Amino acid sequence: MESCSTANQPDNTGIGLVGYGVNVFGPCENIVISGFIARKGRHAFTTTGGPGLYGVPRALKVIGGAATEMTAAPWDTHPEGEGIEFVDCTAHNCRHAGFQLRAPDCRITGGEVSHAGSHVWVIGDAHRLVIDGLLIQRITDTGSGSMGHGIRIAAGSAVADVVIKNPIIRETYYAPIVFTKSDAALGDNPPVRTVIDGVIAVDVATSDIYRGLVTVLDGVNPTQLTVLRSTIINATTKGKARSLFFKDGATPHSGITFVHCYTRGITQTALFVGAASPIVVRNCRRLDYADVQQVGSGISVLTKAGPLADADFPSGAVDGTIGGVDTTNHRLYIRSGGIWRYAQLTA
To answer: What Gene3D superfamilies does this protein's entry cite (predicted)?
Structure first.
């Protein structure tokens, strides 16, 4: 299917009009859709199945699609689907997310989302996903439930093995990346094995509860989350401290690691805030502003003018525990290899 378009599709589910541009339905495979343009509808592209069918759509590729003024995510999969790839697709001025992934083995390569309710919403049965190189900018709170996040990963029935690589996230209304609860009907299992690599978040304005490059909402317990080589730049918010990681509430998490992550151009920055369990931290620091306001990892962290002595650290700490901050020499002390080591926090 090549160089087709659709416009003004009625979206009224109450009378059975769902406003789909392209709906790939049932047991089919090896379909390529190139240059599809959609304006004013529900989904530009989606997948579905039905009772009595023995298979789902597989091995689908959407290339160079463009969508605007859609009421839901223009580039969508229902749970019925497998092996679906979106290449260089764009979503502009859509009320919901730009992409919504609910099926396994999906991939987004390139593309852009702007003036939408979210960039990508990962939910339901989505697992083994790759999101690579998207430009996300001017994301707003559209009142659609998407809340103006860059990437939203929701607890679901089987959300696992999600890889997010090299996105640029600019001018989001809330958090660049957020882990949140899902609709109860889709399940509430915590996301497992998420890798976030090479994120650059610039000029993001976040609220009281969406306060980090990565934010985890209360009641969500992501496990085996790894954040690599990522930076947050020029974040602002109602006088609240910004951070690389913010955990809302006391629900424990496990297996969270940050490596080579940085902040720049942010006063009153807290690298890790509100964490309910220890985080493994390696070479994460501020690239400007010598003062360190707040660092946390599930314990009351000591802030002291001058070097910290053994007596200052919490007893029984495990590797990965953040022990305290030397505000004179700008050192962050972390338990590693059974001893306390420090990381320099200034450039």
So the answer is: Single-stranded right-handed beta-helix, Pectin lyase-like (2.160.20.10)
Between β-strands 82-87 and 107-109, what pairing exists: parallel, antiparallel or unpaired?
parallel
Q: Which amino acid is at 296?
A: G
Look-up of token digits 């497998």 = 82
pLDDT for position 347: 40
Q: What is the strand order of the sheet 302-304 is part of? A: 302-304, 322-326, 331-336, 339-344
> pLDDT per residue over 270-313, tens digit each?
567 665 566 777 777 776 544 333 333 333 345 666 777 777 77
Residues 6+ apart with CB under 8 A from 271: 243, 244, 245, 263, 281, 284, 285, 286, 292, 295, 332
- At 295, the amino acid letter reads V
To the nearest whole percent, how much of the chain has pLDDT over 90? 27
What letters, b where the CB count within 10 A reaches 16 and e where it falls short, cover 296-322?
A: bbbbebbeeeeebeeeebeeebeebbb
Average pLDDT, the chain: 79
**Integer Cα distance of 147 and 155 in angstroms:** 16
Alpha-carbon span 344 to 275, nearest angstrom? 21
CA atoms of 317 and 337, how far apart (whole Å): 11
CA distance linking residue 70 with residue 223, whole number of Å: 34
Distance from C-alpha of 34 to C-alpha of 31, rounded to nearest angstrom: 10
Rounded Cα distance between 139 and 113, Å, is 8
Query: CA dist 102 to 78, 127, 182, Å?
Result: 5, 8, 12
Rounded to 5 degrees, φ, ψ at 17 are -100, 110
Bridge partners (DSSP) listed for residue 66: 37, 90
- Which tens digits make up the pLDDT trace of 242-275? 678 877 766 667 778 888 888 776 655 556 766 5
Residue 240: both structure tokens together: 């609240």
Per the CB < 8 A criterion, the answer to whether 191 and 222 are in contact is yes
